[in-house]
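Case study: ribose-phosphate diphosphokinase.
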Amino acid sequence: MYHGNSIRLLAGNSHPELAQAVAERLGVPLTPCDVKKFSNGEINVKISESVREEDVFIIQSGCRDVNDNLMELLILISACKTASARRITAVIPCFPYARMDKKDKSRAPITAKLVANMLVVAGCDHVITMDLHASQIQGFFDIPVDNLFSEPLMISYIKTQINGWQNSIIVSPDAGGAKRVTALADKLGVEFALIHRKRDGKSENAPERMELLVGNVCDKVAILVDDMVDTGTTLSLATRTLHEKGAKTVHAIISHGLFAEADMKLVDSLPLEQLVVTNTIPQRQHKEQCSKLLIMDVSPTIAESIRRTHNGESISLLFGEWADGRGMDMF
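Here is what the predicted structure looks like once written out:
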């Protein structure tokens, strides 16, 4: 299956379930490594097997304790570099600090660029990530970056799990996601809508509401698509707005379900048929608190991208016939 040097899979503490799923898909065991903290909070890494002249892939997502997980990744990369690994690829399903990708106000840091610099300085040769908040983050790197898409998964879910999807409308909760929803709507052959979040007044404490800018959702199956859900406020406002505008049913499909400050019981009470997220971030705890949560498995996509990267094959083919043939084994 593989030629040349072998694949070495390493994982930090951010998402061991996803790392194990990717390893099983590839038929490659995880290389034993011990990542723990000293009593003062410093991180210590011990890799138990040789990685000399090997093709190393380190799976670490930017979730929960983001700063600790990022530091673990940097130290793992550095450890592999000094251990003479031939190539080091950081597999980051959810890229940390991706929302801080531009200087939107005075003295604001572009932290995504800083993270890119740190990864390169640590010794990273290649980055594989998924559904970047802004695709221009790839330009922050001077090394190859493969941005994988969950769009084929979303299309598969819509066509197989949503009744009457032919009469659906794809909705973006903000202007930034317009390109994402128009591409999805074109591939499904349906219409798209755009809603805008605004405050009733100039005060920061003024109540927020959403208004429909583009599209008509009346008597249609509304499918809300976004790249990230964190507090759940936008999701709640958008769902209620679509319901008030006469949508027959409302579904939500989100790439990265952070749910850092979200009240899952409140999310469960929303007039949503289903809330679909990927497992780029651990979702077991959230699933227990929300009966409407459905998890899409991205491990086949990540595993195949690792195999293709190792063998020098095209990554873009991942989103053609290969993705179409995966079916519902991704759920």
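For the exam, be able to explain this: The mean pLDDT is 90.
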